[in-house]
Design goal:
By secondary structure, this protein is α+β, with helices and mostly antiparallel strands. It has six helices and 14 strands.
């Protein structure tokens, strides 16, 4: 029940000097009582049956979106998990349920932000950001994230689940020990200082006074150096932020660097007649480029992706045939290694052509 509500208002005349006649009395303010009757509401409890374990009290109609980045990290590096809940309902009351599937991650308390699109604050988006740290290179993905709520229109509990996000976790490196600087012991007998200098008797060689700095030609050019340096730092910072927010671009650059270094290693192995290391590096370069193009971990790439994923996406038949031949050469090298440097060197241009076509293909 709400109410009843009672109150009053004061009605003032339009003119304090308005008279009901030439000799009549002036009109006075009047107090009028106002009242509203009580209103009754029917409030039903939430159903106690079929309650999802992830339910934390959210009521309304919502959608779930989950992103994570970066997705190519070393063990112990932080990953930002962003969970967005959009819909109609009391957004301030929504709490992020405990995610029991993140046991292989070190988690930190999440932060939240609400953006409403109506005047009552019942429509909009609530965003949770949580930092998670993978503890082992065995981790291959961020587990699925679930969110449950009660839909008053359907009068049922609903559970939303976002699919797992693939991760590439490399082994972490050792942290170097900090260097501690030890201050040297001051000399016990410091040299005496001269507080007062004697008056110079001779002025020495006289010279003409140079013009002020403002009138010198190189002064303005010298003053522009800090501005140019500041602009360079701003551009560098924006590129760094753009790279940090774009894991796909960051992986493309990383794969390009791996290819440049790998091709140099291939030429060295070919000159040394090192067949085993040559084909091991050849297989890795194929994995890195195919993994980048298909947005999959490089370790999961095998010869089967040529027919199962590249062929349905419209890749040229010549490129598919060349990739099959290169994978076949890697398989044959395990049993019948190539001993000739010329034969090994002849494979490198074929690999460069295949990698170039993969890089230009629209997948």
């Amino acid at each position: 029940k709400v109410g009843p509500v009672s109150g009053s208002i004061v009605l003032n005349p339009r003119d304090a000097f308005d008279f009901d006649g030439f000799f009549g009395s002036p009109t006075r303010p009047q107090q009028v009582a106002l009242s509203l009757p009580a209103m009754n509401f029917q409030v039903s409890p939430l159903p106690s049956e079929n309650v999802p374990p992830e339910f934390s009290g959210a009521v309304g109609d919502y959608q779930l979106s989950v992103t994570a980045g970066p997705t190519n990290v070393a063990a112990g590096d932080p990953i930002t998990l962003k969970i967005q809940i959009t819909g109609d309902g009391p957004l301030d009351a929504i709490a992020l349920p405990e995610q029991t599937t993140l046991e292989n991650f070190k988690t930190y308390p999440p932060t939240s932000k609400v953006e409403t699109s109506d005047q009552f604050g019942l429509q909009g988006t609530k965003t949770f950001e949580q930092v998670i740290v993978p503890q082992s290179p065995e981790i291959k993905a961020v587990p699925p994230i679930s969110f449950s709520y009660f839909d008053p229109a359907k009068k049922t509990y609903e559970t939303l689940t976002d699919p797992a996000i693939p991760l590439t976790v490399r082994p972490g490196g050792a942290t170097p020990a900090p260097t501690v600087a030890i201050a040297s012991k001051p000399s016990e007998n410091p040299p005496p200082t001269r507080d007062i200098l004697p008056i110079r008797q001779r002025l020495g060689v006289l010279s003409q006074i140079a013009p002020p700095l403002v009138q010198r030609p190189g002064f303005l050019a010298f003053q522009s150096i800090p501005l140019i340096a500041f602009a360079g730092i701003v551009i560098w910072r924006k590129r760094r932020d753009s790279l940090a927010n774009n894991p796909r671009l960051r992986r493309q650059r990383q794969v390009a660097q791996i290819e440049n270094e790998g091709l140099k290693e291939l030429r060295k192995f070919a000159a040394q007649n090192n067949s085993d290391d040559f084909f091991a590096m050849l297989f890795r370069l194929l994995q890195e480029r195919l993994g980048e193009r298909l947005d999959q971990p490089a370790s999961a790439i095998t010869e089967s992706v040529v027919d199962e994923q590249l062929s349905p996406r419209g890749v040229e038949d010549s490129t598919l045939s060349e990739l099959r031949d290169l994978f076949q050469l890697c398989n044959q090298a395990r049993y019948a290694p190539i001993k000739s440097s010329q034969e090994l060197a002849a494979i490198i241009p074929r690999l460069e052509t295949a990698l170039g076509k993969l890089k230009e293909a629209r997948l």
